Amino acid sequence: MSVLVNKNSKILVQGFTGTEGTFHATQMIDYGTNVVGGVTPGKGGTKHLDRPVFNTVADAVAATGADVSIIFVPPAFAADAIMEAAEAGIALVICITEGIPVQDMVKARHYLEGKQTRLIGPNCPGVITADECKVGIMPGFIFRKGTIGIVSKSGTLTYEAADQLVKAGLGHTTAIGIGGDPIIGTTTKEAVELLMNDPQTEGIVMIGEIGGGMEAEAARWIKANGTKPVVGFIAGQTAPPGRRMGHAGAIVGGADDTAAAKMKIMTECGIHVVASPADIGKTMAEVIAAKKK
Amino acid sequence: MNLHEYQAKELLKKYSVPVQEGIACSTPQEAEEAYRQIKTLYGSNFAVVKAQIHAGGRGKGKIVGSEQRGVQVGKSAEDIKNIAQNILGGTLVTIQTGPAGKLVNKVFVAQDVYYEGPNPIKEFYLSVLLDRTKKQNVIMYSTEGGMDIEEVAHKTPEKIFKEWIHPAGGLLPFQARKIAFNLGLSGEAFKNCVKFVTNLYTAYTGLDCAMLEINPLFKTSDEKIIAVDCKMNLDDNALMRHPDLSSLRDITEEDPTEVEAGKYNLNFVKLDGNVGCMVNGAGLAMATMDMIKLSGGEPANFLDVGGSANAQTVEAGFRIILKDPKVKAILINIFGGIVRCDRVAQGVIDAYKKLGDIKIPIIVRLQGTNAEEAKKLIDESGLKVESAILLSEAADLVSKAVA
How confident is the model over B240-245, as a mean pLDDT? Predict the structure, then answer.
């Protein structure tokens, strides 16, 4: 088991023939991901990386049966790419693109309401199921098959956590990079819920940051419904209020979206909150060991 | 990107949103001339001088070394000239600027809106912003205008109203009417308010604003509805489709180091601590700052070098961090996924050699692809650079450096 993607997933790459699309599609194929083709409007009928290129997502789905799409389209056109994928019936759309105007995402997010499509991101590293399927830009070699799921707003912090888990003798089921934008497709709570329902996942690492209320929402859900240990970290304990810290969504607006406030509510909800990012792997190993006694 | 009041008002006028009119001036002479024009246009002896800075609380704020407020009414050309003289070139300290204050380069000489007429004046509050939880834009408004809205929200939450805007439908006429009714308006003022709110929302979406705040939203004694002050923040991600708006950026309002970092595509935020850091990825950069604090230091900056951690970006990062004399050590923390650690290490070595004499300890933590080779490169470089692979090792090295 695992969640969202596995070795049977058929992946389509939107923005396939661009620099980013080409580079990361190659890496994904090297990892063993089943990339069935790509979309670049105007280049339909050609081949790229030995795979067919289509003009539209609908054409690609009809020809390949793709069920997952990854988007490397530039920011000005990315929201449109998300909506096109949803319209074509893609079940899972993973948008890597950073810098999409927020009003575009208000529209795209609304467009997805009532559709069967799940969106991950934008501004995220993607999703990886260890040793099976990498749909993203994360370095594949740091992941090992195992029993810990990861949910994270941040790219390199996900890699940090993944690496620490391996060094602590653990491995991963699926790591989900949900993205650092103010409006994203899948929330922390929804991603945690997926992993909580995955029989193979024994523990969950939940990495958040300042800004917004998603971690608090996830914490309350975990308190009410959680069946597995969760180790949590919130980046930005030292971030000044009112300043955007790199990610468009990482800004302290009020008292509720500070790191301290989030850590407090997470602790109250039974999450093992670590103050230092260096303690994520170690803490999960201790929690899992204690559970098995 | 933040705009000045005078810039925001110019933009609002293009969307037929009525504003308190005025003229932006850089010298006392210009202010005097502006007063004459305004007097002719509006027939009042009164006009108001408003300091143009990217911060609120100007009316209560004072120019350093004087009793001059950031906003003051005058009733003659001489008055206006003197007030402008006092404000221009001065440093204005308000509750929002911090003790350092902000240099005032421009004043806005504006019409008096408190003129007498058949009905009483009224001040309201209205802003448009994104509700992240509902994933919709929201119009937030209150009958309590001209005051600190956070205080109103805290003390009298029942006086704050919200109207969420459907992402596809936009602001609907009944919603605009509801806002005007809730503000207690009727007759001409009601009609004017509906028009105002409708056009303001069009401006918000048309300009790709991240936040648009009108405080006070003003009803004049002759039932006009106008924006007396305006705070506008544009979505940086959307500036690509508004080339004309990019030129409105006032870099004198920004930290010069942050402006320089931007030229190298580095995402930099200046902080007040003693340990500088250079990191790839925003989340890891924040986490690294937190770790510096837990190790006994205080972060001197946030710096995300993104995916391009090469010799040029590392050198630029070094230069920018080293500008701050308070920095006692620098921690470079790179998780090399796609970018190879040995390449980053070589970049660090090249940049270090190019800069010559760096007098403070440098700690380099490289983890990921080719981490061992990278550590070897650093260790054998002969430079005064400490290397680490694990994050916990880096934390220990920071503790030692600041001890």
Answer: 95
Nearest to A180 among B282, B367, B369 (CB): B282
CB contact under 8 A, A103 and B208: yes
Phi and psi for A95 in degrees, rounded to 5?
-105, 115
Token pair recorded at residue A215: 């971690």
Q: With a threshold of 0.90, does the pTM exceed it? A: yes
∠A9-A14-A19 over CA atoms, to 5°?
A: 115
| Known catalytic membership, residue B380 | no
Could you give the ipTM of this predicted complex?
Answer: 0.92
Q: B11 CB contacts (<8 Å, ≥6 apart)?
A: B3, B203, B207, B232, B245
Other residues' Cβ atoms within 10 Å of the Cβ of residue A254: 11
- Tell how strand B362-368 and strand B301-304 pair up: unpaired
Chain A touched by B245 (CB under 8 Å): no
- Which of B222, B176, B174, B223 lies closest to B199 in space, CA to CA? B176
β-strand pairing of B209-219 with B267-270: unpaired
User: Are A246 and B302 within 8 A, CB to CB?
Assistant: yes
Provide the mean pLDDT of chain B: 93
Measured CA to CA, the distance from residue B43 to residue B35 in angstroms comes to: 11
Inter-chain contact A154–B238, Cβ cutoff 8 Å?
A: no
Q: Tell me, yes or no, if A136 comes closer than 8 A to chain B by beta carbon.
A: no
State phi, psi for A33 to the nearest 5 degrees: -70, 140
Residue B308 has pLDDT above 80, yes or no: no
Query: pLDDT digit string (tens) for A210-255?
Result: 999 999 999 999 999 999 999 999 999 999 988 888 887 888 877 7
B213 is catalytic: yes
Tokens of residue B323, six digits: 């500008």
Residues 125-154 of B with CB under 8 A from A: 130, 132-133, 135-137
Q: What are phi and psi of A181, to 5 degrees?
A: -85, 160
CA distance linking residue B266 with residue A78, whole number of Å: 23
